[in-house]
């Protein structure tokens, strides 16, 4: 068909050799005038014909729907002349009714209706008594919807041959259209004879049955139907026939149906030409079959997924392990991997870097198997920490929800979208959705000590210890983690667990010093110092030149002089062993011998990175030995090469050094410079005003800036506010406020309160001193000895106290407390405290006030 877009395209113009007839459109099935004509196809612009294309013959154009057939005029004319002329020539050469019908059919087929009418008259004049010719011409006219012209021919055929079936049927249809069912029944009487329907088509009887049924003559309809059923038994399964019969039987309230029971036939159901089933039934069957196939496919997919799951193995031990499932051949893993398994309960056996067995259960809901992506993870020894996140993608997204997973040997997650991969920063959200939610699982890459500390803070005590133990199996030399692990075990009453974990590997060689230090702390907290000293003495006897054992024996030796001697031996045996030098530096720092401490630390490469304590000792020894300018230069260099909140320690060290050098204005300027160099997103962090400024104010001795917000409210004091009030002798202000008891959890702050109360003559001094002593007596041997000294009503021998190997900040506090408690013996304690009170960090000003 021609097509135009905005007036540009193709279009028909002109009509020639027009012929019109009444008929039914083959496309829209509407009765009306159908036109056939010749025209030309044009290329048009704004519907103006521009370029002539082809001449066309339009056939059966329907004015209602505009649909039609189109052929080339030349082809049409050629075919018409060939066929029509040939048929007419055959008629003229051998005139007969059959040849006349052939020629007439050719003319009707090519829509030359006027020529066909003339030919009919010619043929009827030539064979006026041929009933066959009359009936044949009438039938051809019927096919072309020329009903009016066909009727006289049927009547003439019937008059010439009253028994001619074609004439009787043609006239019967006309009587049925007129509503004359009785005469139509008489005309079709020949079809009601036994055996007639095996020779003639049953269509006329079917039409008669429908007409008499519509006229309410149900008895006659049943009679006709019974005859048809007897002649053609197979029609009993025809859906339309059964519908007609059922309708009449229902109208007659027939007690018994003439129809046999229906029989299901799958063959007829899929045969689109079979009358047994309707299109709706067939489509229903197709849809049902499709649904069955779909559900079967989904069921097969569901079962396949159930039988083909993956059990992920994440080996964080740093050494190969083998994993066997239900006794199957073991699979080796040296990192992450997976094993195909079916859902259900399984027994897992792990060997290699660790030997353990566990039962796991892999389950997912039947319907969840299609929409969810579950993950099951074996985490040997719980050595790896994971972070599970729920991310919301939306125009105004909700904050992500994050959960830390530690200490889990088996992890079952119902759904994970991104497994060990970073989720996209943005995601397109469909307009019909308010948000898209994605589940993410990633491995935690932070230092194990940091993860352990965080998990303890979240209340996952048992799982946190499991994680720490797994991480230590991979990296036993992690000094920070071993120290944190042993300290937490002592504080949280997990010493038996820690001992059982640490002791089996004490005999490993080479000696892992951080592991032994943790073990020694556990045993000393349980007051097994004597047993511990004998244990290391026996080990050293077997290996007298083992520098690590010399150092470790020195840590548990009760005699301070022998302990120092063992540390010195360790440095002589192995000058590259940093732990011996660290022990000597630690001992010098506890005596305030800063020059010697600095010399000892110089033997440790990158001392500030060796551990947290050496970094602190290095800074204090430089400040205490008059090298504050060196601290200033290094801090300025570090602050120039990095920006961010993580540079806060360097800022405080710089302020400390500048104040020791007598440069308070430079210290204030350093804070402003540091703050201005922060990235914009960090500069407005509330912690700048709530943490950094108050800390620097304390260093500068500006206590009013710290106390003012606290004094104007009724909130519990913060540790820094506490130190500011203690520095100015306002401890009574603190003691009256609620929430002060929480400071008893920190033994060093309890010592500060004890000192302040002692200076003020407050009876609460003893309570705070007892809190500190109780906390210290559950730690290492030196701290237990110090707890005894705190509880004593007599001052200890100074030489005995000075020999205690303690952190300078703790030892300075205790020395100050002893000096103010026992004024008659304060001399050496006060001198030691003054040498140790180097840094301006809290409680510098409290101790300075107490020592004046």
Termini separation comes to 111 Å
Strand order of the largest sheet: 1-2-3-4-5
Largest sheet: 5 strands, antiparallel
Radius of gyration: 53 Å
The assigned structural class equals alpha+beta
Mean pLDDT: 87
Q: In what range is the share of β-strand residues?
A: 5-15%
Q: Would you report the number of β strands?
A: 17
Figure out the total of helices.
Answer: 40
Helix content: 40-55%
In one word, what is the shape? elongated
Low-confidence stretches: none
Short key terms for the protein model shown above:
five-stranded antiparallel beta sheet, four-stranded mixed beta sheet, elongated, alpha+beta, 852 residues
Task: Please explain how this structure is put together.
This protein has 852 residues and is of the alpha+beta class. Among the domains are: 4-67, no CATH class; 308-425 and 434-444, no CATH class; 704-851, no CATH class. Helices cover 55% and strands 14% of the residues. The strands form four sheets. It has a five-stranded antiparallel sheet with strand order 1-2-3-4-5. Strands 9-6-12-15 form a four-stranded mixed sheet. Strands 8-7-10-11 form a four-stranded antiparallel sheet, with no helix packed on it. The N and C termini lie far apart (111 Å). The relative contact order is 0.03.
């Amino acid at each position: 068909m021609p097509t135009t877009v905005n007036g540009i395209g193709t279009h028909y113009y002109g009509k020639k050799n027009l012929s019109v007839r009444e008929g039914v459109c083959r496309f829209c099935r509407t009765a009306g005038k159908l036109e056939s004509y010749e025209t030309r196809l044009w290329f048009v612009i704004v519907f103006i014909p521009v370029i002539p294309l082809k001449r066309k013959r339009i056939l059966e154009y329907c004015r209602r729907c505009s649909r039609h057939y189109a052929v080339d005029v030349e082809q049409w004319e050629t075919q018409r002349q060939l066929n029509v002329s040939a048929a007419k020539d055959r008629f003229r050469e051998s005139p007969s009714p059959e040849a006349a019908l052939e020629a007439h059919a050719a003319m009707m087929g090519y829509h030359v209706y006027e020529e066909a009418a003339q030919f009919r008259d010619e043929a009827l004049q030539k064979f006026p008594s041929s009933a066959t010719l009359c009936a044949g011409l009438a039938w051809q006219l019927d096919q072309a919807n020329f009903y009016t012209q066909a009727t006289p021919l049927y009547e003439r055929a019937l008059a010439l041959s009253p028994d001619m079936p074609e004439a009787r049927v043609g006239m019967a249809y006309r009587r049925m259209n007129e509503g004359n069912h009785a005469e139509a029944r008489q005309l079709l009487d020949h079809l009601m004879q036994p055996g007639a329907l095996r020779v003639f088509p049953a269509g006329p009887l079917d039409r008669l049955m429908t007409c008499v049924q519509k006229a309410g003559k149900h008895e006659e309809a049943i009679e006709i139907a019974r005859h048809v059923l007897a002649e053609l038994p197979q029609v009993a399964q025809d859906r339309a026939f059964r519908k007609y019969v059922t309708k009449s039987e229902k109208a007659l309230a027939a007690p018994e149906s003439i129809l046999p029971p229906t029989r299901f036939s799958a063959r007829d159901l899929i045969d689109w030409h079979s009358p047994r089933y309707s299109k709706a039934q067939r489509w229903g069957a197709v849809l049902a079959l499709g649904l069955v196939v779909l559900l079967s496919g989904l069921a097969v997919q569901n079962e396949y997924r159930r039988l083909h799951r993956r059990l992920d193995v994440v080996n964080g031990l740093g050494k190969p392990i083998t994993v066997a499932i239900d006794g199957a051949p073991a699979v080796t893993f040296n990192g992450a991997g997976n094993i195909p398994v079916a859902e259900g309960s399984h027994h897992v056996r792990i060997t290699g870097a660790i030997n353990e067995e566990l039962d796991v259960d892999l389950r997912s809901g039947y319907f969840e198997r299609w929409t969810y992506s579950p993950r099951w993870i074996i985490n040997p020894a719980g050595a790896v920490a994971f972070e599970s996140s729920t991310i919301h993608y939306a125009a105004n997204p909700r904050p992500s929800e994050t959960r830390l997973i530690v200490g889990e040997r088996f992890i079952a997650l119902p759904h994970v979208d991104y497994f060990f991969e970073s989720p996209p920063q943005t995601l397109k959200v469909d307009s019909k959705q308010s948000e898209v939610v994605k589940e993410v699982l990633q491995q935690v890459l932070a230092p194990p000590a940091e993860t352990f500390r965080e998990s303890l803070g979240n209340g996952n005590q048992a799982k946190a210890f499991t994680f720490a133990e797994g991480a230590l199996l991979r990296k036993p030399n992690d000094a920070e983690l071993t120290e944190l692990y042993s300290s937490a075990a002592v504080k949280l009453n997990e010493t038996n667990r820690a001992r059982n974990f640490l002791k089996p590997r004490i005999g490993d060689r080479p000696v892992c010093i951080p592991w032994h230090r943790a073990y020694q702390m556990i045993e000393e907290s349980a007051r097994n110092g004597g047993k511990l000293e004998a244990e290391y003495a026996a080990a050293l006897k077997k290996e007298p030149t083992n520098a690590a054992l010399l150092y470790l024996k020195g840590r548990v030796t009760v005699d301070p002089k022998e302990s120092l001697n063992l540390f010195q031996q360790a440095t002589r045996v192995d000058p590259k062993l940093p732990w011996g030098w660290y022990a000597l530096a630690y001992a010098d720092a506890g005596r305030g011998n800063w020059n010697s401490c600095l010399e000892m630390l110089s033997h440790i490469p990158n001392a500030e990175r060796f551990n947290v304590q050496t970094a602190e000792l290095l800074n204090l020894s430089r400040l205490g030995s008059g090298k504050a300018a060196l601290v200033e230069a290094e801090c300025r260099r570090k602050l120039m090469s990095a920006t961010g909140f993580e540079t806060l320690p360097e800022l405080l060290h710089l302020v400390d050094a500048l104040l020791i050098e007598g440069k308070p204005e430079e210290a204030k300027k350093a804070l402003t410079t540091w703050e201005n160099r922060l990235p914009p997103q960090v500069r407005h962090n509330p912690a700048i005003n709530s943490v950094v400024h108050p800390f620097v104010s304390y260093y500068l001795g500006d206590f009013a800036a710290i106390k003012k917000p606290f004094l104007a409210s009724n909130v519990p004091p913060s540790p820094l506010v506490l130190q500011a009030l203690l520095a100015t002798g306002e401890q009574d202000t603190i003691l009256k406020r609620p929430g002060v008891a929480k400071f008893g959890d920190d033994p060093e702050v309890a010592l500060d309160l004890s000192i302040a109360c002692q200076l003020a003559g407050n009876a609460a001094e003893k309570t705070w001193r007892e809190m500190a002593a109780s906390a210290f007596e559950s730690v290492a041997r030196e701290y237990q000895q110090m707890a005894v000294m705190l509880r004593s009503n007599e001052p200890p021998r100074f030489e005995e106290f000075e020999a205690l190997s303690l952190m300078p900040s703790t030892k300075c506090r205790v020395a100050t407390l002893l000096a103010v408690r026992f004024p008659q013996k304060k001399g050496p304690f006060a001198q030691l405290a003054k040498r140790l009170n180097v840094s301006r960090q809290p409680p510098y000003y409290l101790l300075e006030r107490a020592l004046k």
